[in-house]
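The passage that follows is intended for readers who have already worked through the single-chain material. We present the inputs for a multi-component assembly, then the predicted structure in tokenized form, and finally a short commentary. You are encouraged to pause after the input and sketch how you expect the pieces to fit together before reading on.
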Amino acid sequence: MNRTLPHTPFNGSFTSAAPPAAESSANPESVFPPGFVWGVATSSFQIEGAAHEGGKGPSIWDTFCAQPGNIADASNGDVACDHVHRLEDDLDLIAALGVDAYRFSVSWPRVQPLGFGDWNETGLAFYERLVDGLIARGIKPYLTLNHWDLPQALQDQGGWANRQTVHRFVDYALGMHRRLGDRIVAITTHNEPWVMAHLGHETGLFAPGIKNRAVAFQVSHHLLLSHGLALRALRAANCQARLGIVLNLSPVQAASDSDADLAAARLEDGKLVRWYMDPLYEARYPLDVWDHLGADAPKLQDGDLDIIATPMDFMGINYYSRSVVQAEGHYDVHTSGLPLTEMGWEVYPQGLTELLLRLHRDYAVPPLYVTENGGAFKDDWVEGASGWRVADHDRASYISAHIGAVGEALRQGVPMAGYMVWSLLDNFEWASGYAKRFGIVHVNYETQRRTPKDSAHWYHTFLQRQRVRRDEAHTTVARV
Ligand code: FCB
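Having made your guess, compare it with the prediction:
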């Protein structure tokens, strides 16, 4: 059906776009320091395709997609955005957008099919072309080692529930450092350990589809431990890239002032925020959550917590919405009157400022990046003076308002270092399949044609203005 979409071919350059209304009122532009990094993000499984070629091993997401009922539209990552075969064009697209940085992830089974033992040269060469191609275009590579696509062969040995996987991960991190470490600006160990642990092993909504709370919390511990051990190993190997982790965090609010709702919100904050922040910054798990887990609390070994608390050079935060909790039943997002995205997530930009202020207040955080932020919205194709376009005003104003929220955090003293839009392309949105589109660039999955949406044109214009400000600041300093 995609083929029938009206289309005006993208000519490779972006047009000037008027700012969405939200931006003018927030006027975020003046606060960003010259070194602030503007980027766009993707992940391997969601865009690459080429799932069964070039020597790649299967990942747990290949397996999960093959099991009926797991993915809303019964799709998989076999082709996705066909990025592996369209690398050069996609790199040109990123360059044309005008970002400083591109955040991508490496598919572990593409570079090391079993997750241990032999390396796959075809896979390594692909990422080398990607990284060199970014650098040649003046774009900083931000590499994530684990954006969920664990080699299936490791899952067959227990996956992240098996402490041995921690050591496999460290070997993998060192292997990537040996091949690419000299060219990478920043390495993220894991993307969103909460999602892997909780959705992957407690609710079973994501790969590997396990439903066991004790396993989920053991997995969270092993993910954190492997993060700390990888940091130590990379530093010992003289890795010059900045090292950190990416967490999905939200402010957690109670649905009412009742004692029960307040207690439920406090516990949820413990599981989502403090369960990760406390060990990373204070070498301890939050006691209230630990007590709540009882026999499901993870097994630790001496020294684990100190390893987890190894200092980081930066931390990434993925922010989409707030979380509202009530003790009985589920909070109904339709009651707040806030606009909702296609995912049913409330649009709540001020939650990002609140969250960043809280992290800065409660923890000794390093420079922070928003490593993902964006929205799934319905895309309207409209015919304008210069042809057909995707008029995604909702997405542009979502992004603009959240950039404003980051600006507000900066103004209040939070050490913000960068902001990255999720996502460059429409892509495979995990259990939602291809139905939910987060891209600022539209992908026609039948023709693989890329069409920048109005939000991409807007972001491009915004970035150009940032660049002008930066150049002006530079000139002023030079003159002094
Ligand atoms: C985040 C994931 C990312 C994408 C967005 C919408 O949780 O890191 O891959 O799916 O949500």
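Commentary: The pocket of beta-D-fucopyranose is lined by residues 43, 46, 191-192, 195, 248, 318, 372, 422, 429-430, 438 (CB under 6 Å). The chain has 16 helices and 14 strands. How closely did your sketch match?
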